């Protein structure tokens, strides 16, 4: 039976801490922009419905719920990140 040996080759695509921070910051920015876009779309569709334009009520409700859920998820992620930061700050050094 053949034994498995750990690979001795080094990964060729190392990500520096700076690149990882940039990638995370970019991902976070894109996510927040997505939440903002959902809020704007919901507001626009609601205004169209109020003004009597040709928009279906169910489309307005779906856009509203998408915006609400994405904002709630964003707030929960923020809360968890703050909790993690506070926990790290409480750790003895």
TrEMBL record:
Chief localization: other
Span of the signal peptide: none
Keyword tags: Bacterial flagellum, Cell projection, Cilium, Flagellum
Annotated localization: Bacterial flagellum basal body
Domain of life of the native organism: Bacteria
Family membership: Belongs to the FliE family.
One Pfam assignment: FliE
Protein name: Flagellar hook-basal body complex protein FliE
Name of the gene this protein is made from: fliE
Source organism phylogeny: Bacteria, Bacillati, Bacillota, Bacilli, Bacillales
Keyword Coiled coil assigned: no
InterPro entries: FliE
